[in-house]
Amino acid sequence: MRARSRTESPPHLLPTAAERRQSGGARLAQVDALRGFALFGILMVNITYMASAYHGTGLEDPGLGGPLSEAVRRLVAVLFEAKFFLLFSFLFGYSFTLQIDSAERRGAQFAPRFLRRLTGLFVIGAVHAVVLFPGDILTLYAVLGLILLALRRIQPRTAVRIAVALLAVTAVGYALLALAVGHAGGGGTIPQSTASAAAQATEALRGGPASVMGAHLQELPDVAFLLTFFQAPSALAAFLLGLAAGRRRALADIDRHLKLLRRLQWAGFTVGLLGGIVYADASLNHPETAYQLFAMGLDVITAPLLAAAYAATVLRLARGRYRRAVVTTLAPAGRMSLTNYLGQSLVCALLFTGFGAALVGRIAPVGVAAIALTLFAAQAVASRWWLRHHTYGPLEWLLRAWTTLSIPPWHPQGGTRPPRP
Length: 421
Hints:
- With 421 residues, the protein is mostly helical.
- The chain has 14 helices and no strands.
């Protein structure tokens, strides 16, 4: 049994004109800051899979063990894994409602445009999975977006009830599997074939471009299974929670929800963090056991709480005394989430595969974490510079052109720079 998922990848979450009209510049900047923070968390998870073919197998990468490596692995598992894709899923559902409202105000047909957006996402995700990173989730989000489109008229309360039911049923499913494995007395031993497959994948990823893409293609069936049965229910639940929040315009005025944000922080940093600790212990120390299945079910319930606590913290910081620092650092990266997400995969592919330095399996977890921090810092600076001169990020511009079947403005209209956060 591998880790719960091979990916924390985000969907395209281009801020819409509807968001700008509905929430105003400062509040939009808060939401963009949340996107940027989620993008950082996604990088912290995805880079661990790109840096080692052993990650997620329950085995340590030979030569990359030791107390410090173990501590970094544990921190990433507790604080990052299975948390940040939920933030992007929530924001996808939230932005979905604003796009509907914008289309209705203009008298435009929403469904055809949204279907084109999903098609563009699927194509981008498929190319990304084969060439750069098989743990892509954009294709799954494109498919789940069809369900969101079909459910777009449901009431907020109904959306919340369906989301809670999805999470509960998934958690119960894990519990039943844990009981079955425990009753059968199986699990607990990682097959020798797993270590052999990881070693072969490492060598393939160190080869030329054809070898790298061949390794990605070989891994795709396993990734598709994991995404469909382990991650899709939680992602769809977060979509629906975002839809409900969008209907209520919950992010339009953060000051009205400070009490709720504090409660989310309390629940997330207690119950949610405890669930993350159990999940990390089971994944790292007890793979292929009934305990791991139980922990994964527990994580289905507690990970959304920790993700919500992160979101509440960022939103509160983005409106308080540290607002300028938080927004200036995170919001530009969030506005270019699609470009930055794929850019992360490109840089990591150049570092860790035969496309470039072929360092897969050669950098300890602490070094991998340092690379992630450095890369995101560079993206934050580059995004801020780019958006001073351009209306959209490069890939956001392409996807918007396909979605609207028009040529979006490349530079800010009137030659003026967009307002600084």
